[in-house]
Amino acid sequence: MAKSTPKLTTDEDLELLAELGVNIAPEPTREYSPREERIIAGFEEIDRFVAEKGRLPQLMGDRDIFERLYAVRLERLRESAECRALPEPLDSQGFTKEAENLPNLTQTYSNRQKFPEHRVRF
């Protein structure tokens, strides 16, 4: 005869938790479209950059190519209400706030003729 494995949580435990108002049901996970996943992943890369460097990415000619990419990506996130809404729960430092309330990252580089504006599509 096969042995049954003991339950880790008994019915009594569940009743006690219910009386205490503790909900142990797992929260439903949200499914994201591939586009939404790219937006969130892009924001997470910007967030990691800020955590490592202690500053927002800048779009200046002497900066690393990835920093310039992050700067353009952040600006595009700020411009689109839909793109701002997705990473908002993850945005504890306010990187994706309304575009008009924050400095325009691409305007920090004064000699824009050397580098044509690159569009990042989400």
Describe it for me?
This protein has helices at residues 11-20, 34-53, 65-79, 81-85. Helix 2 (34-53) crosses helix 3. The protein contains four helices and no strands. By secondary structure, it is mainly alpha-helical. The chain starts with 10 loop residues before the first helix and ends in a 37-residue tail after the last helix. The model is unreliable at 99-120 (pLDDT under 50). The longest helix has 20 residues, at 34-53.
Order of helices and strands: HHHH
Overall residue-averaged pLDDT value: 76
Distance between the termini: 58 Å
Give a short account of the largest sheet.
Answer: none
User: Which outline best applies?
Assistant: elongated
Overall helicity: 40-55%
Structural class: mainly alpha
Brief overview:
By secondary structure, the protein is mostly helical. The chain is built from four helices and no strands.
What topology does this entry show?
Layout lengths: L10 H10 L13 H20 L11 H15 L1 H5 L37
Helix pairs in contact: 2-3
Keywords:
122 residues, disordered C terminus, mainly alpha, elongated, 41% helix
